[in-house]
Amino acid sequence: MNTELSLDTTWQALALLAFSSAITPGPNNLMLLASGARFGLRRTLPHLAGVIFGTASLIALNIAGLGALMLAWPAAIPVLKVIGASYLCYLAWRLTRAAPTATTQGGVSGDARPIAFTQAASFQLVNPKVWMMGLAAATTIGSVDTARAAFGVALFMAVAMPCILLWATFGVVMLRVLRTQRAHAVFNVTICVMLIATAGLMMLA
């Protein structure tokens, strides 16, 4: 009975961690918001799937002990911050290059491309927020038992997926609202500033 209660408490805590981590603003959600607004939901799905796959993989690696190894090697953390912040600044630069002139249907420049599955999955390896989330999830799950770990990762992602999908969907709503080139330009600049601010917070965290 006590064991069952303990397991229930563990999964409840993990679900709450997944929800609070996935629903709050962060690099992934800002990029999904921008992608939904620029490309629509269908073209954003590979990006979303990459976030889910990369996050799930990182949680699994943390359960296997990679997180503890990272904590034992503190010099790796600043490196992750620099790479992650640099990538966010690069994405911000790409947004500034997405001029609202010479656009195709939906206000997207003809040479614009959404973030690919592999790019989104790889970014999770240098996203400090996902590392901290992975460490917390691994600590909550606790055991390295394969079945328990697999269930924990699946539960985490099942809760997180609709949260990040909500951000991409909100971007799609913005796509319907932003009907002028000027509105698209203002939106791009706003997301650009938010990405740069997130990069700065990433370095200071």
Question: How would you describe this structure to a colleague?
Answer:
With 205 residues, the chain is an all-alpha fold. It has one domain. It has eight helices and no strands. The chain is globular and about 55 Å long.
Helix content: over 70%
Described by strand count, sense and barrel closure, the largest sheet is: none
Taken as a percent bin, the fraction of beta residues is under 5%
Element string (H = helix, E = strand): HHHHHHHH
On the 0 to 100 scale, the average pLDDT is 83
Number of DSSP-assigned strands: 0
Structural class: mainly alpha
Q: Report the span from N to C terminus.
A: 41 Å
Give the C-alpha Rg: 18 Å
Domain module count: 1
Globally, the shape reads globular
The total count of helices amounts to: 8
Low-confidence stretches: 1-5, 99-107
List its salient traits.
mainly alpha, 8 helices, 80% helix
Topology (elements, then pairings):
Layout: H1 2-23, H2 27-63, H3 66-72, H4 76-97, H5 117-123, H6 128-141, H7 146-177, H8 181-204
Helix pairs in contact: 1-6, 1-7, 2-5, 2-6, 2-7, 2-8, 4-8
TL;DR of this structure?
The protein has 205 residues and is mainly alpha-helical. The chain has one domain (42-204). The chain has 8 helices and no strands.
